[in-house]
Amino acid sequence: MHTLLVTGGAGFIGSNFVRYVSAHAPHIRMIVLDALTYAGNIANLDGVKNVEFVHGSITDEKLVDSLMSRVDTVVHFAAESHNDRAITQPRIFFETNVMGTLILLQAAVKYDVRFHHISTDEVFGDTALDSTEKFTESSSYKPSSPYAASKAASDHMVRAWVRTYGLRATISNCSNNYGPFQHIEKFIPRAITNALCGLPIKLYGDGLAVRDWIHVEDQCSAIWEILQNGHIGQTYLVGANCTINNAHVVNMLEEILPQYCGEQKITVEHVRDRLGADRRYALDPHKIVEELGWKAKHTDFRKGLSQTVEWYANHQDWWEAYKPDVERSYANLGQ
Ligand SMILES: NC(=O)c1ccc[n+]([C@@H]2O[C@H](COP(=O)([O-])OP(=O)(O)OC[C@H]3O[C@@H](n4cnc5c(N)ncnc54)[C@H](O)[C@@H]3O)[C@@H](O)[C@H]2O)c1
């Protein structure tokens, strides 16, 4: 691997991955292709060396063709990624997540480029709250939301391109990420920034929905491991065995946040849940651990959460300009 195309590299996980590669393999040249939608931020790449930034869309065939001809590997993060938006604006999710992936796959076949596709555990749907089931690589696809359906479609396409065209591809399905540079529309950064602004932390529904959390740096090290040693045609589930319900995450935040909030009281408000919300995600990362020897480093969730709170408290200039718009959009949804 000498030249890497990173789609969506100005988003949350993409920019963390670019930083990870830059730190661990400085000899690799990276091209970031990002449309800089509301979720992308060029400032996420400030100070990173060995990166060429291209402002454009994965749905632009000519642009994708020319970039693909210059690289030997692509890691495909670019997506519309927010479940709540997918409910009100599903079309853009299919244009980006499905049609954009199609354009990338065709160009990757043309230039015989190694392809790694980033996906989500949400393709498997959910399990009951009292279940102990964990998703594995052989769990059936049962997406419940428009976002998950679009990601499921893209996973199927990658597998079809491996079988039909001999594309050298792998897939990783990851659980919920947290850490620096995550857009403040998402649950944990929204909760932190609400508290820092003196607004109530919003908790969806009864707060009992369970998510399986992984620190974004662990997600990046897993992708890196797959690029080095993953087997072509294989899928790897990436998780850190950290299932916690949302109310519990909020309780931890209530304990961590006071030192950053001065006199402001931290309050919590229950808001209506999103339509069709999944109850519980849990995934089994055995395969990547056993086959590739990958291990999560951030196994203490509370510590990772404290570091994340500290990051948002110290990077107010990164998020405060967007805060009113994000809260206005949620208010329109009654959340
Ligand atoms: N965040 C999570 O917890 C999580 C968990 C599992 C999987 N994933 C997957 O990881 C990937 C990255 O997620 P994220 O949380 O970093 O998302 P994000 O929304 O923070 O970033 C997405 C990036 O893609 C860019 N983008 C959107 N449309 C584009 C287009 N047409 N062309 C080029 N760039 C475009 C955006 O500008 C943004 O920079 C996604 O594929 C998502 O499905 C995310």
TrEMBL record:
Stretches that traverse the bilayer: none
Q: Name one GO molecular function term.
A: dTDP-glucose 4,6-dehydratase activity
Q: Which InterPro entries match?
A: dTDP_Gluc_deHydtase (IPR005888), NAD(P)-bd_dom (IPR016040), NAD(P)-bd_dom_sf (IPR036291)
Reported EC number(s) for this entry are 4.2.1.46
Q: Which UniProt keywords apply?
A: Lyase, NAD
**What cofactor does its activity depend on?**
NAD(+)
Reactions listed under catalytic activity: dTDP-alpha-D-glucose = dTDP-4-dehydro-6-deoxy-alpha-D-glucose + H2O
Top-level EC class as recorded in UniProt: lyase
Q: Does the keyword NAD apply?
A: yes
Q: Where is the NAD(P)-binding domain?
A: 5-307
The record's listing under Pfam families reads: GDP_Man_Dehyd
NAD as a keyword of this entry, yes or no, is: yes
**Sorted alphabetically, which PANTHER family does this protein's record hold?**
DTDP-D-GLUCOSE 4,6-DEHYDRATASE-RELATED
Family the entry assigns: Belongs to the NAD(P)-dependent epimerase/dehydratase family. dTDP-glucose dehydratase subfamily.
The record's annotation in NCBIfam families points to:
dTDP_gluc_dehyt
The name on file for this protein is: dTDP-glucose 4,6-dehydratase
Q: Taxonomic lineage of this organism? A: Bacteria, Bacillati, Actinomycetota, Actinomycetes, Bifidobacteriales
What's the encoding gene here?
rfbB
